[in-house]
Specification:
alpha+beta
Length: 140
Amino acid sequence: MHKSRSALQALTPKTLEDENRRYTGRGGISEENRGLGFLPAYLDSATGSIHLSCFRDGRRAPIHLLDGLPEPLVLGREASGKIVALKGSVSAGFVREGRFYTREQAAMAMMREARDGNSPSSPRPVQASLSRSWAGILLL
């Protein structure tokens, strides 16, 4: 059994590394589920907003990065401006077809895909709205 992060604990690069290790080989990391349309994203459970992972310049990132996220999510930065912590209500996961999936839900969908040989059924993704700045990206 794995330890889950408390909503009071900040999301940091170390947290992302730990989650990647935990979900490697299960479909809960970008490299393993990208081909099925999963995009790395973050859910702020305090507001229900979803933010796609992106680079500092706003381009969509292929993996979970912290640097392109909006200021209201940020708890800490280095002197260079690099984000080092997000508020505890933020979770890493994925967006697929306009819905947010936790890493666990994405892993379950990948297991169904492997077992059934067809597209994964939705494992009750979290219902939340995309932040306005990113909503148009998913329609492209």
